Amino acid sequence: MNTKLKPATPQTLEELKSDIINRYDSMSKRLRLVADFFVQNPNTVALENLVVIAREIDVSPSTLVRFANFFGFAGFSELQQLYRSQLKGQVSGYRERVRHASEMTGAIKEGHHLLDAFSGPQSLAIENLSIDISPADFDKALGLMSSARIIYVTGARRAFPVAYYLCYALMRADVDVILLDGVGAMHKNQLKRLTENDLLLAVSYHPHADETNECIQIAHERHCPSLVLTDHSIHPCKEVITHGLQVKEAEMMGMRSLSTSMHLAQCLVMGLLCRQEDQENG
């Protein structure tokens, strides 16, 4: 008698994304194509029909049904309903997000209570960073940084503050660094002198900015290694990224924090300085 329990069917998109990450290695090549598309294009999955989505991914419609069954859904329609429900709940601005969270959960949004409500989840996320990132992965990241002639740093939109801080901290550490700020849409020109002896350090959050993806692709074409700080293990450029560190940020009232990313940025710079000092003393 087989007593093995079936995994529970995801009830939210966050649960589905977590399941996709955890079970990604056990999927067939075609199911991985579907997984990549679903993670990167949730709105398309919510709004288009089965045939159109299958055509976009270049798989058969039956593959989408198998993908839905793989995660415990009765069929594609049931899986798509999860995306449609999420889409209905989406709100654009921060003001609308706070109002929406308050209406949905009754979240406290007054005065000093916010300090406690926000600091708790963020503190926990920072504490878990040393668990989420293994010593080997962190050491590999430091190795890439320490061997680079010049570190090119890039990050767009929400990721830009982390990229800017990394550039500032590396400058203060006397490391040769260039911030790819993309002013005037000149990020390609800023990469003209990129070589295989340099490093592209990218900060990239879902949904990953096209400008950042383009920088990663250019680095790959120039045989330049890339180190990517990201909030998701399934990245559109995952096939060409040299190494990645995954950051899990806390989310409160529809807003995702940057505290864990900033903490990681500081640790990377301090770790690089410690490694350089050890090399000089050795």
Please summarize what this structure is.
This protein is of the alpha/beta class and 282 residues long.
Structure in words:
With 282 residues, the chain is α/β, with parallel strands linked by helices. It has 2 domains: 13-88, Winged helix-like DNA-binding domain superfamily/Winged helix DNA-binding domain (Arc Repressor Mutant, subunit A, Orthogonal Bundle), CATH 1.10.10.10; 126-281, Glucose-6-phosphate isomerase like protein, domain 1 (Rossmann fold). It is built from 14 helices and 7 strands. A 5-stranded parallel beta sheet has the order 2-1-3-4-5, sandwiched between helices. A two-stranded antiparallel ribbon has the order 6-7. Strand 6 and strand 7 form a beta hairpin. Helix 2 (29-40) crosses helix 5 (61-70), helix 10 crosses helix 14 and helix 11 (160-172) runs parallel beside helix 14 (259-281). Keywords: DNA-binding, Transcription, Transcription regulation. This is HTH rpiR-type domain-containing protein.
